[in-house]
Known about the structure:
Number of domains: 3
CATH topology of the largest domain: UDP-N-acetylmuramoyl-L-alanine:D-glutamate ligase
CATH architecture of the largest domain: 3-Layer(aba) Sandwich
Number of helices: 16
Strand order of the largest sheet: 7-8-6-9-10-11
Strand content: 15-25%
Largest sheet: 6 strands, parallel
Radius of gyration: 23 Å
Helix content: 25-40%
Structural class: alpha/beta
Amino acid sequence: MNDIVKNFIDQSILADKRGVVVGAGKSGLAAARLLDVLGAKVRVADSNPALSPDVLGEMKDSVELVTGEHRKEHFADADIIVLSPGVPVKKMAAALEDVEERKIVSELEFASWFIQAPVLAITGTNGKTTTTTLVSEIFRHAGVKAFTGGNIGTPLCEYLLGPDRAEVIVLEVSSFQLQNCRLFKPHVGVFLNFAANHLDYHENMAEYLGAKLTLFARMTGDDTALLHESLRPMLEKTFGKQPFTAAQTLWFGPTDRFEAPHLPGEHNRSNVEAAWQAVSRFGVTESQAAEAIKNFKPLAHRIEPVREVGGVLYVDDSKATTLDAVIAAVRTFDRPVRLLMGGVWKGGDVDAFAHEVRDNVVHVGLFGSSREILEGPLAKVFPVTWDETLAEAVRRQADQASKGDVVLLSPATSSFDQYSSYGERGDDFKRAVEGLA
């Protein structure tokens, strides 16, 4: 527990104040624990009517749980309302219409009030987790004690309650987390890329971009904003010659500065450069970074070779939930690609996508949901088939593939039509491939 948290407790700053946490997931429960420790009267509100008080664990006797449709009375007495990531305010408009906007914050914003160490925060549509994990591995190799969390791993609120103290806070931050931030300010902020995504959550692309740019809103001239060169035209169109942040702004793109054998593709060469530029602001040397990058292996389900069967390479890229991520994956290979796509649609221009990958893709195998969105535009350019399940789609591709082909699971969608996560979807793909062998 750090000194700021202790000070809040000692001075009873939140004692007997009402804190309402929306969402009983990992981040929501971490926020509830922090509020509880700070002495607040805590209520957790979750829309799942089947949720049991057991979800509160050790807080069951001190924290109130309300479930089902959100109602005004759940929030009327609130001094602070903490939103879990992925809880859209617009869907709670009726319940929150009488609440002062200043009382509504994200879990990231709430936790950031208590942070002492400098923050390195990474956002973007694609590549956040790989880059965040790489940054943390470079710090580990260089002997810098870093906490890694936010949108991956441990919520920031949970870190604050633990015994460990970090020299640098490394955070993956999503638009969901940033949208309700007002004071959150990293020392180094990284914006990797921007493409259509989460349009089932955000009203439009302008709102989505605005949420991302919240990362840089409170930064000063002592801070550094690192932005991919592809963002420059969009930001100039949006802001003209006016700077969108007070931070020192630096641009990066793909380079061959480092040997990264386990991070193929131009997009990863950009991610590596971003990671280096970020850690260099904290005293890491290029030789320290080079050794860590050379040995770094990305997490599962990110352009991950599964195995080669009969001369056909099967690759799990289940984490690719946007069209831009699929384009990057397809361009990684200099072999014909048989692409597996399908799931819950999140937005994007399918016609433009087909144009971008037409020289690399020889067949598209659809499965699960979004057939009505994907099949028409893709069938204008590629042979397209559809199967109800991923396993059936894998078997079809195996029957049709030629030696030298790549069967690439890169769905361009979320997994929630048939799976609980992209990881479960990727594991199902691996099982199907093992079944072929």
